[in-house]
Amino acid sequence: MAETNGVQAAVDIPADKAEILARPLEERDDIVVCENVHKWFGDFCAVRDVSMRVKRGEVVVIFGPSGSGKSTFIRMINRLEEHQQGRIVIDGIEMTNDVRNLDAIRREVGMVFQQFNLFPHITVLGNITLAPQRVRHLPRSEAEALAMRLLERVGIPEQAQKYPAELSGGQQQRVAIARALAMQPQIMLFDEPTSALDPEMIKEVLDAMRELAATGMTMLCVTHEMGFAREVADRMAFFDEGALVELGPPDQIFNNPQEDRTKLFLDQIL
Amino acid sequence: MTARAAPAPLPPATTVGLLGWLRQNLFSSRGNGAVTVVLAVVLVWFVFNLGSWVFVEADWTVIISRAPLYIVGLYPYEGYWRLCICLLLISVLLGMAWRAWPNAARRFAFGFGAVMLFVGVFPHEMAPDHRALLLLNLPLIGLGYLLTPRPADASPGRLEAMAGSALSPALERVAIFSTPRRKVIAVFVALVLTMILILGIAGVPGLDPVNPQDLGGLMINLLLAFFGIVCSLPIGIGLALGRRSSLPILKVACVIFIEVIRGVPLITLLFMSRHILPLTFPEDLNIDRVYLAGITITIFSSAYMAENVRGGMAAVHPGQAEAARALGLRDWQNTLLITLPQGLRNIIPAIVGQFISLFKDTSLVYFIGMLDLVEMGRVSVQGNQEFIDNGREVYLFIALVFWVFCFSMSFISRRIEGALGVGRR
Question: Label partner for A148 (CA 20 to 30 A): which of A233, B60, B205, B259?
Answer without folding.
Answer: A233
